[in-house]
Task: structure prediction
Amino acid sequence: MGGYAEPMNYTRPAMDTSTLHDGPPDRSNGFDRRRFLLSTAALVAASGAISQAGGQAPGGQAPAAPATGSGGAAPAADGPFTLDPLPYPPEALEPFIDAETMKIHHGKHHAAYVKNLNAAMKDMSPLVSLRMVLKRIDQFPADRRTALRNNGGGHVNHTLFWNVLAPKGSGGEPSKELVTAIESDLGGMTKFQEAISAKAMGQFGSGWAWLIVTPERKLAITSTPNQDSPIMQGVVEQVGTPIFGIDVWEHAYYLKYQNKRADYVKAVLELINWKTVSGLYAGAAAG
Result:
């Protein structure tokens, strides 16, 4: 099969980066850091009150939600979070990742995380971003924490994943700054590929392999189980801002690769959207 070319009338959906990076408080709606800190404290306290009253958000593995069938957005969600369309048609990553896997992975699995995340965030303050909730996930009561950790993590992880992939030949090249960082921090591009492949292969069961920017603004390779994100303080061994990730849950590859995870990991490395990864690196490195 030849390289993918976007149809003349196809418009690539705009990337929503709001869950992918940190940034200063958004003052356009009157938010500031003091209000954020106060609302976070109130949010955690409210979570405890809800738990004591017997309210419990769903946790654990998200059940399947209806598939969209075309890679488009799911029906309107009952809450603030929605399933954005894939940034390319579901067949665009073939032959490396098949269309059917993309439809199921995005339209069922990711959609289910969004649905359950909306349930988990019900009754919480709208002033606090999902990313900030996840960064402080260890401060929430255990019953609420599980739902947020699994479903919030699943949402931000998959949102990143779709956007750091691109059809073969369309992802561009890493920026000069990113190349320099890969060479100085990881030993070069070959070493990067070897290290992240080893993390992906070494992750027992479900999880992710990551390229992150550490708080010291250095690149590092790490992995997390299940839907844990490197931003989850108090949960993960190495905290950082993810700028690229490989999903090694079996639903990400089993239809095409069965138990051949190594072949799938190699395929993902053929699809890196270096333009997006470079932009995420620039944002994270700038602090």
